[in-house]
Amino acid sequence: MTDVTYPARKPARPFFSSGPCAKPPGYAPEKLATESLGRSHRAKIGKSRLQYSIDLMREVLQLPETHRIGIVPGSDTGAFEMAMWTMLGARGVTTLAWESFGEGWVTDAAKQLKLDPTVIRADYGQVPDLSQVDFTTDVLFTWNGTTSGARVPNADWIPADREGLTFADATSAVFAYDIDWSKIDVATFSWQKVLGGEGGHGVLILGPRAVERLETYTPAWPLPKVFRLVSKGKLAEGVFKGETINTPSMLAVEDAIFALEWAKGLGGLAGLQARSNANAAALDKIVAERSWLGHLAEDEATRSKTSVCLTVEGADADFIKQFAGLLEKEGAAYDVAGYRDAPAGLRIWCGATVDTADIEALGPWLDWAYATLKSA
Ligand SMILES: Cc1ncc(COP(=O)(O)O)c(C=O)c1O
pLDDT tens digits for 140-178? Predict the structure, then answer.
């Protein structure tokens, strides 16, 4: 293809980053409530806003009362490592990895906690044979691999009568897929993904079996204060009522409340999923119409609807860098290069905060960047 046609129309909001992701449509910082700022987060106003954000998350996620939900430090990484450090070591561990974030949890389990985990891997774009997993062990997995665009299809592979606990890094998955919470003992995420919120804080979800583990097992290693979820043998329940371990950013909390109220206005989970599904379908159409574009995750059942990763015929890392650079310079698309450790390609966020019309407008720009570089 050598036809370098400059497209007529740009995406209105060219924000396609896979994290932090696009803000919700209509977002403006001046629309945030600010009464809780400049006050103690333990004052009535601060605590009520933290509790309100927790209540909204529960409602929009359709999280059952069996599961607690709390705000913790350190974004998704902080939440997931808090869970690993406080609960692992009681029994064997299996870590599943099919991209770089899952690999990060393997490194934590093997090299930092020295747990000698069973590691089950798959290449970028694929998901391993989930029937191999031994559920007498604790099982760690990334629901949606943000850097490969591959995800678990559902939670059917997790038995109801498992002995170990399941730990899901669900940061690119919550608010986008149906999650059978009865199969999840621990889940974590950050507001910066599907909600288009801010980083900094993580969200920790604990099922009853995780709470039981916390209250009956003490790890062999020391725990820093920011990881401590238990006091005198009992779960620190305050964490799940807005009494955060240390000082949160109330601005980030207000920002998350904005996104959650937007989500609620769309009809909650179903509304968010409908937007993400429409975005992924619009991108699929773009891919199907171009012989030089493909999906890194070939199997549709395990292909992401949030962090969609694309292959570009003949592209290496340098080509992708130039490709993404051209689009950024034109203001047509920001942050669409694949993750640095992933095979060279594009990654386009299709989560709910992105507008489908903007995905549709992207097609001609991808053609333009490809043709421009090919003809150079
Ligand atoms: C699957 C996954 N896990 C963990 C992280 C780390 O998230 P955070 O920077 O919010 O800690 C990311 C960020 O992109 C991610 O995609």
Answer: 999 999 999 999 999 999 999 999 999 999 999 999 999
Counting as low any pLDDT under 50, the low residues of the chain are: none
pLDDT for 131: 98
How far apart CA 303 and CA 295 sit, in angstroms, is 8
> What spacing in Å lies between the alpha carbon of 104 and ligand 1's midpoint?
10
Rounded Cα gap, residues 148 and 96, in angstroms = 14
- Measured from the Cα of 19, ligand 1's closest atom is 14
pTM recorded for the entire structure: 0.98
Q: Count the Cβ atoms, other than its own, within 10 Å of residue 199.
A: 18
Q: What lines the ligand 1 site, CB under 6 Å?
A: 19, 75-77, 101, 142, 146, 169, 171-172, 190, 192, 199
The rounded Cα 165 to chain-centroid distance in angstroms is 20
How far does the centroid of ligand 1 lie from the alpha carbon of residue 108, in Å?
Answer: 14
Of ligand 1's listed atoms, the one at least distance from the Cα of 144 is 1
* pLDDT given for residue 93 in this prediction: 98
Angle at 34 between CA 32 and CA 35, to 5 degrees: 140
Atom of ligand 1 nearest to the CA of 190: 10
> How many CA atoms lie less than 13 Å away from 61 in the CB half-sphere?
28
